[in-house]
Specification:
Length: 344
């Protein structure tokens, strides 16, 4: 089964063609990063306009790359949410229209569940259930229990900022470019990760929730303490920036993984997965690996960094497993409406 998948939830216009949930025939991404660098973050209206311009060229490029036409495609998948509604709209409208014209079933996909299925792309070995998934991006920060395909339970979430968002905001405080995660990772290589002792949120109540707004504020106060309230981030000393970046990164990595490991020891799953943009971070991968090394639990993360950040191949994979689980649900054409608070 070949699925043409569309993703436009934030700042990437992406179309992929995926076979049997694993084989990627095409994976085209028009990134808006250079555009959003100018403002140091995503401006929703700017993102939405760019999707409108890029969707058809990206769609055509995907079909060309795969050397396929519509007769080779069995179904269309699209991210319905969560995300920026004005951005999602381009994807859902395009997918709904194409499914009507080409008479293909349409499969709406949850963005976070799509990130989870990035770990099945180009990998033959099936997931072993139950699995615990830490999926962390700029827009979400979730710990999920996957009992089997299409059966998910949310164990915990962020109460304020997602870790990726904290990376982006702290990068701005340090005068680094957007997106902040890869920039902080790069400069942290030259820093001392114990130079600063930033706080880790201690949350009341049971569960596996996260909070990163306090950490972000602690970095802001540290900067203001050293350079004054109106400091200019472009004039900072590179050793100081590297030490803040390394200490901040260590704090985020330990917070994310320690809680995931707590869930692993409570639930005893077969696998621990890392997914989402932040799973590209090498320190996060290394620390998780180290923490899990004494157990039989298998760890997975997308080997290929391009499947960590937003892409449509992961959407095609998730859609395949959802379709297989209940094909009758997706037979007819439907008008898919975008949803910013789509739940799973
Ligand atoms: O999954 P994604 O592309 O978009 C959302 O769904 O939000 O994730 C983007 C986020 C950004 O916040 C970015 O700074 C972060 O992932 N990110 C990283 C790294 N690469 C991307 N964070 C830490 N280390 C990285 N190497
Ligand atoms: Zn994402």
């Amino acid at each position: 089964m070949r699925i043409l998948a569309i993703e436009t939830s934030c700042d990437e216009t992406a179309v992929a063609i995926v076979e049997e949930g694993r084989k990627v025939n095409a994976n085209i991404i028009a990134s808006q990063v250079p555009l959003h660098r100018k403002t140091g973050g995503v401006v929703p209206e700017v993102a939405a306009r760019e999707h409108v311009l890029k969707i058809i060229p990206v769609l055509e490029e995907a079909l060309n790359k795969a050397e396929m036409s519509w007769k080779d495609i069995d179904a269309i998948a699209v991210v319905k949410g969560p995300g920026l509604v004005s951005a999602l709209l381009t994807g859902t409208l395009t997918a709904s229209t194409l499914s009507l014209i080409e008479e293909k079933p349409i499969i709406p996909v949850h963005h976070i569940l799509a990130h989870i299925y990035a770990n099945q792309l180009e990998i033959e070995e099936e997931f072993n259930f139950p699995a615990i998934i830490l999926t962390v991006s700029g827009g979400h920060n979730d710990l999920v229990l996957m009992k089997k395909h299409c059966d998910f339970e949310l164990l915990g979430s962020t109460r304020d900022d997602a870790a990726g968002e904290a990376f982006d905001k702290v990068a701005k405080l340090l005068g680094l470019n957007y997106p902040g995660g890869p920039e902080i990772e790069k400069v942290a290589l030259n820093g001392d990760e114990y130079a600063f002792d930033f706080p880790k949120a201690k949350l009341s109540g049971p569960g596996y929730d996260y909070s990163f707004s306090g950490l972000k504020t602690a970095v802001l106060y540290e900067m203001q303490k050293n350079f004054g309230k109106d400091y200019n981030p472009s004039t900072l000393n590179s050793e100081f920036v590297a030490n803040i970046a390394a200490s901040f990164q260590r704090t985020v990595v330990e917070t994310l993984i320690d809680k995931a490991i707590q869930a692993v020891s409570d639930i005893n799953p077969c696998e621990l997965h890392l997914a989402g943009g932040v799973s590209a971070n090498k320190q996060l991968r290394l620390y998780a690996q180290e923490k899990i090394s004494n157990s039989k639990i298998k760890i997975r993360y997308p080997e290929n960094i391009k499947y960590c950040t937003d892409n449509a191949a992961m959407v095609g994979s998730a859609a395949y497993f959802f379709y297989k689980n209940n094909p009758n649900k997706y037979r007819k054409w439907r008008n898919i409406q975008p949803s910013s608070d789509f739940t799973f």
